[in-house]
């Protein structure tokens, strides 16, 4: 078991490291003014633009903002207009279906293999305009975004989880390579562009958080380290499309590369809008602050488990959480958990997840951690494999099938064994409120799914 994923697609970018830190990042030395964030004449002829992700007077420890020093302000753009609202991905019907059944998606019907913008809404709760709840989307992309086109969500913060494949993401604040067995988070409003390394397809999941921001769970009596350690998160470094030249007074100035107009596609209340602007949005020469994209290798999770007897609750697998403010302490809009390869020993204890009913909803993802390009878990003929997802709603009983229940009862629990080393990591979106499904997601789901924890991973149709 590797403590760091040996990715098939090798890293090509460098990063800052540390979740929640304040960073100063410069593509050109001296691009960020010190100490005045609002310098009258910023270095290199740049313009100051601040992005605030939280209330301006919130607690300092949770106040998220970033100052960007860019060649041209994003203020310079044409009018936004509705974009492609005759297509489902640009104007999805509202999610309105609830079911008391456990449901699964062995695969996902995908009408057209598009780019990053052609995501499909699975379900939602809350309201992005009230900044409550979340939405879940699938993506299955087979081509780069159109040239000089970027995307942003005005609805929420995006947690991106590839099932298989890689994403090359250029954001206003820098570049990230995100591969299967990694996750990435992009804050609300950040503009970015997604391409495919070597043109190879990528599929996966997005949880768009409408309320607040993802953060690390508190460790309590665990102490200073464990679960997802803050020092393992990676943050892109400043990068811009342009160059530095001598100005009229022999001062150095940053100049953008000459391009034609750029298209800005933004999601608002799940619907897409578009505008154009005359310059590249990737003209940020330096930035400093606490609001930024980041990524994380799921192999680095420092798993906590019982070593004598019993089962810890699945909360010990939580990587990121988003507290539900105004609710009982410990309540989350969403917890993102990762259940991957680990050693297990607990005497006289049933090894598999037990039969369980839970006030939280559980949306389970299959993440292929096997990095072999020919892994049998990836069926190139299927839209999703070995399965897409399954959902257990409020108080829906879930657990093993009878065959595996009996096999685990007969197993020797006194010896350490490696579990979940078959190349598949389970990701979990655990959320507080029921998930309303869109019509296509409800109609394509297999109802009353019973074999979620079998060695076959999920039932097939």
Features:
single chain, 461 residues, mainly beta, Jelly Rolls, seven-stranded antiparallel β-sheet, 36% strand, disordered C terminus
Provide an overview of this structure.
The protein is mainly beta and 461 residues long. Helices cover 3% and strands 36% of the residues. It has a domain of 149 residues: Jelly Rolls (Sandwich), CATH 2.60.120.10. The C terminus is likely disordered. It holds the Pfam family HgmA_C. Keywords: Dioxygenase, Iron, Metal-binding, Oxidoreductase. One of its GO terms (molecular function) is homogentisate 1,2-dioxygenase activity.
CATH class of the domain at 299-447: Mainly Beta
Number of strands: 31
CATH architecture of the domain at 299-447: Sandwich
Radius of gyration: 23 Å
Topology record:
Elements: E1 15-17, E2 23-26, E3 47-52, E4 65-70, E5 81-82, E6 103-105, E7 120-127, E8 132-141, E9 149-153, E10 157-164, E11 166-171, E12 174-179, E13 182-186, E14 192-195, E15 202-209, E16 234-236, E17 242-246, E18 252-256, E19 262-268, E20 271-277, E21 284-289, E22 294-297, E23 318-323, E24 332-339, E25 342-344, E26 361-368, E27 389-392, H1 402-409, E28 417-419, E29 424-431, E30 436-437, H2 439-444, E31 446-447
Parallel strand pairs: 9-19
Antiparallel strand pairs: 1-16, 2-21, 3-4, 4-21, 5-20, 6-27, 6-31, 7-8, 7-30, 8-15, 10-13, 10-15, 11-12, 11-14, 13-22, 17-18, 19-20, 23-24, 24-29, 25-28, 26-27, 26-29
